[in-house]
Amino acid sequence: MRFRLLKKNLLALLGVSFVIVTLVLMVPENDTTEPNSVTQSQTFGSGDPVKFNFDSLPELSNSVYNANYRQCVLNAELFPGEPHLVLVVQVHNRPEYLKLLIESLQNAAEVHSFLLVFSHDYFSEEINSIVQSITFCRVLQIYFPFSTQLYPNEFPGQDPHDCPRDISKDKAVKTGCLNAQHPDSYGHYREAFITQTKHHWWWKLHFVWERVHVMQGYSGFVVFLEEDNYLLPDFYHFYESMIDYRQKNCPDCDMLALGNHNGFNEFSQQSNKVMTTGWMSTKHNIGMGISREMYYKLMSCNDAYCSYDDYNWDWTLQHLSGTCVSKAIKVLVAQGSRVMHTGDCGLHQKDNCRPEWAMQKVEESLRMAKDALFPASLTLAAAEVPEHKAHMKNGGWGDVRDHSLCKNYAKRL
Description:
alpha/beta; Spore Coat Polysaccharide Biosynthesis Protein SpsA, Chain A; 15 helices
């Protein structure tokens, strides 16, 4: 049951069935050897957060395993009762942007009624300290157990025997590199740092809805955010207004989009307006609200998501909308965005990150928005017919090892 045993299963390549994911996430009742001697008498969510050990990869792996098992909810005794809203934040390694997000959450109305779930794929004392300093609502941290940080020299990290990205298939076969038979649609071989985000997003979606104990029985939407997002003060007010509007006027709306990428120049005119349309990657991937019903629709497309040759989770979702998901996904969209995107660096741009510029952007946007916050009611600005929007896939996801690992997140043993 220990993590090091899982590595042997994980290294199984083509044609071998992976039996890995649930072992990391759950502990059988008769297992008495889990790390740090967690016993069945200890309730899920109780006690102090797991103290991470960064001394070695096996110790760090055990810390991840233990934390996902224990699921300690911070501040639970201060804010009892069911959460009114669950926010899930995907976190990598941009602590300065994460601090901005937390500042915005602290200033959001009704935040004491939230459950904040931070889903990490990079593990550090600094990031844990930032998250665990939150005192204004309940907080849960979960940890992506197949992070490339935990597998620096083997799949799902970058194995030294993997094929170089740009080698030809003929040359790859001759050299005998591990994944020679499986380049992507454009003839390129996988890069671990590229594939991780799509893996993490799908694992997180499943883990939150199926494995997080404090979420059992929760019937509301889960709003998905990223570490370089910033929430406006009336975020929860607008969320409640959207829920009310959906119930009365758009019961077939599958998702919510509380954010957009339009900027704030016309926020005063757009603050109380919504529209309905088909879900599109470039427009509706910020502040996404997903219901349990929509989660089940997406997970019914587990194989399609995990085998589609695009390393982007959002472009993959757009592909599913109207193909595997039989009806194009219909989304209720905030015209006046309640979520800002502050990041000026990310997956493809890692240098010259300037979080101080992000703060200037936030302050300027808040000045433009402040007089139009907390609208009394919502108005429909437009209603477009949802339809499948085909696009050219981006590749980067041709390796069958990625397909197999991804498909196993949703399987119960």
